[in-house]
């Protein structure tokens, strides 16, 4: 099946959906472990490789026949055309009338016009000069001392991607500069981060696509006041503040020199922006050459996504499996568990990527949807997770598919710990699949010498149903290249889901209301009479807050 086979219609889409409903009823009694017995060689047939990653999706409640139906659904959704539209810069974000061209940032401007492509090249060149200056201790603070600490101030896409990738690539960090992140409007965040730092040797990156986000503006003001309190004058700010934004006027009005602004473009979505100058903290931490390796890994995944046959296409298969569990198997949540401590922020990053992109309930044309879209994404680094939420995965009542992510080689081999980490990861995916039957549990308890009554009481609690699906993504090592590929894999998986669901993955109107209401409430809090239209609960809580503050 290729991108050009696009002659199917909406009716074909409905028929494919119906066929999958029928397939679902056929699969009702099927067990994943039995599929391995029925089909020797299943693991190989249900594994894919691309851009330094291997995906084993054989531990899913899915057969080759089911895949054919899912691929037909993809075809009926015109996925091939939509992939081309994405890469070629069509107005894929239709509610904001913009393309979503994050892929152009890692492909030398592919999909952009000449001027925009040139601007991207210039920005990367400026990033290299800036990063090298910092590393070579040539960027000096106002008192002539070299910068030792860089603090990124941003939130959402202007924070989560950079903080996740900086943590993930800590083994590649260059010692000369420490990188920190401030995002939360809670004054605790800015206070605690700044506490050990010296204003003379600290540089701030104010990262905000809109330069309108209240959290970022207030934290940037707090950082600027901290500098002023240390004795800096307005003229000294240029040594300590740079910005990344599309809103040049607002950055200049804030007091940051125009020459210290790295541009951003409206065709890059916030949660897809770590590949742009928003990725500066990553580049500062690991150096520009490594940052380019991150882009190269993502580019390799882009090429795979754009060119591979859908049956062999990693993001397409992962997206379709997600649709299968969400819409046909009743899954309302999905866990992502990296068995690599450096990836501990990856689930938080995915929460924005997946839930802000695909947490929608109307089609592109505004019609309400008659089916579910994205469920809850959660996760943490394994094996910690085994001692927190895996109980629910194994014996809870919900169907929660899991993505396990694990490297074969550790950056930190300590005794046999990496082998144990891997064994734990495999143990979990296998336990989810095979479970423990009543017969097995009964036999074990009999062997331990329990009597019949005790066994009757205890056995049901020890039964583990199994038949819980999982994917495993394995790589040789977590490097800038494989991390780039991994992030791009999930970006494209999210896109595949959005195409099947017929939604715009690149807008986020739902987050606006809360921002507006927070402003209204802030105003009401300053004036006793204002806010009378608020509900009783909100008014009561405001009153409690004010009484306690007084
Ligand atoms: O949370 C909403 C949001 O608009 C995100 O989409 C975005 O990543 C974040 O706020 C930060 O926006 P900005 O970079 O404009 O400050």
Topology of this protein?
Blueprint: H1 10-27, H2 32-38, H3 42-45, E1 47-50, E2 53-56, H4 64-76, H5 79-88, H6 114-135, E3 149-153, H7 160-168, E4 178-182, H8 187-194, E5 202-207, H9 214-229, E6 241-245, H10 248-254, E7 261-263, H11 280-286, H12 288-307, H13 314-328, E8 333-338, H14 346-358, E9 376-378, H15 390-395, E10 402-407, H16 417-434, H17 438-447, H18 452-462, E11 470-475, H19 480-501, H20 510-526, H21 536-549
Parallel strand pairs: 3-4, 3-5, 5-6, 6-7, 8-9, 8-10, 10-11
Antiparallel strand pairs: 1-2, 2-11
Helix pairs in contact: 1-4, 4-13, 7-11, 7-14, 11-12, 12-19, 13-19, 14-19, 17-18
This protein binds 6-O-phosphono-beta-D-fructofuranose.
6-O-phosphono-beta-D-fructofuranose binds at residues 155-158, 208-210, 213, 216, 270-271, 356, 508, 511.
Structure write-up:
It is a single chain. The chain has 550 residues and is of the alpha/beta class. The chain has helices at 10-27, 32-38, 42-45, 64-76, 79-88, 114-135, 160-168, 187-194, 214-229, 248-254, 280-286, 288-307, 314-328, 346-358, 390-395, 417-434, 438-447, 452-462, 480-501, 510-526, 536-549; strands at 47-50, 53-56, 149-153, 178-182, 202-207, 241-245, 261-263, 333-338, 376-378, 402-407, 470-475. 43% of the residues are buried. Mean pLDDT is 95; it is low at 1-6. 6-O-phosphono-beta-D-fructofuranose (F6P) binds at residues 155-158, 208-210, 213, 216, 270-271, 356, 508, 511.
């Amino acid at each position: 099946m290729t991108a050009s086979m696009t002659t199917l219609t909406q009716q074909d889409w409905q028929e494919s959906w119906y066929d999958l409903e029928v397939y679902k009823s056929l699969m009702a009694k099927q067990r994943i472990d039995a599929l391995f017995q029925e089909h020797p060689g299943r693991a190989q047939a249900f594994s894919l490789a691309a851009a330094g990653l291997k995906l084993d999706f054989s531990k899913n409640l899915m057969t080759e026949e089911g895949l054919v139906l899912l691929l037909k659904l993809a075809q009926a959704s015109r996925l091939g055309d939509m992939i081309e539209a994405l890469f070629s810069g069509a107005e894929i974000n239709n509610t904001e009338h913009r393309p979503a061209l994050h892929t152009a940032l890692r492909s030398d401007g592919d999909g952009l016009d000449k001027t925009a492509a040139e601007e991207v090249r210039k920005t990367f060149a400026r990033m290299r000069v800036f990063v090298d200056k910092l590393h070579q201790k040539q960027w000096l603070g106002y008192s002539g001392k070299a910068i030792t600490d860089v603090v990124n101030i941003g939130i959402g896409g202007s924070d989560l991607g950079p903080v996740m990738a900086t943590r993930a690539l800590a083994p590649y960090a260059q010692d000369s500069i420490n990188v920190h992140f401030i995002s939360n409007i809670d004054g605790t965040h800015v206070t605690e981060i700044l506490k050990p730092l010296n204003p003379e040797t600290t540089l701030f990156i104010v990262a905000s696509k809109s330069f309108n986000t209240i959290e970022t503006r207030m934290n940037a003001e707090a950082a600027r006041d901290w500098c002023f309190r240390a004795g800096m004058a307005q003229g000294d700010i240029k040594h300590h503040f740079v910005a990344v934004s599309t809103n040049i006027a607002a950055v200049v009005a804030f007091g940051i020199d125009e020459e210290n602004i790295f541009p951003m473009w409206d065709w890059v979505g916030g949660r897809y922006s770590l590949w742009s100058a928003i990725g500066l903290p990553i580049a500062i931490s690991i150096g520009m050459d490594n940052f380019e390796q991150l882009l190269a890994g993502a580019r390799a995944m882009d090429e795979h996504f754009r060119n591979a046959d859908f049956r062999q296409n990693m993001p397409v298969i992962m997206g379709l499996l997600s649709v299968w569990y969400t819409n046909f198997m009743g899954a309302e949540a999905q866990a992502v568990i990296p068995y690599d401590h450096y990836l501990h922020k990856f689930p938080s990053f995915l929460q924005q990527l997946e839930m802000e992109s695909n947490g929608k309930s109307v089609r592109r044309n505004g019609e309400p949807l008659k089916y579910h879209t994205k469920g809850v994404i959660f996760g943490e680094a394994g094996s910690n997770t085994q001692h927190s939420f895996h109980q629910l995965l194994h014996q809870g009542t919900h169907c929660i598919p899991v993505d396990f992510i694990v490297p074969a080689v550790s950056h930190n081999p300590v005794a046999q710990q990496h082998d144990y980490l891997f064994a734990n990861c495999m143990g979990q995916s296998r336990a989810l699949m095979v479970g423990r039957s009543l017969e097995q549990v009964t036999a074990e308890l009999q062997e331990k010498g329990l009597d019949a009554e005790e066994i009757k009481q205890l056995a049901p609690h020890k039964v583990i149903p199994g038949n819980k699906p999982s994917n495993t993504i394995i790589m040789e090592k977590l490097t800038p290249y494989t991390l780039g590929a991994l992030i791009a894999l999930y970006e494209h998986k999210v896109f595949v889901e959005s195409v099947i669901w017929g939604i715009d993955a690149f807008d986020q109107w739902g987050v606006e209301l809360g921002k507006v209401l927070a402003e209204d409430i802030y105003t009401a809090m300053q004036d006793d009479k204002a806010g009378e239209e608020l509900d009783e609960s909100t008014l009561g809580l405001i009153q409690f807050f004010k009484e306690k503050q007084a």
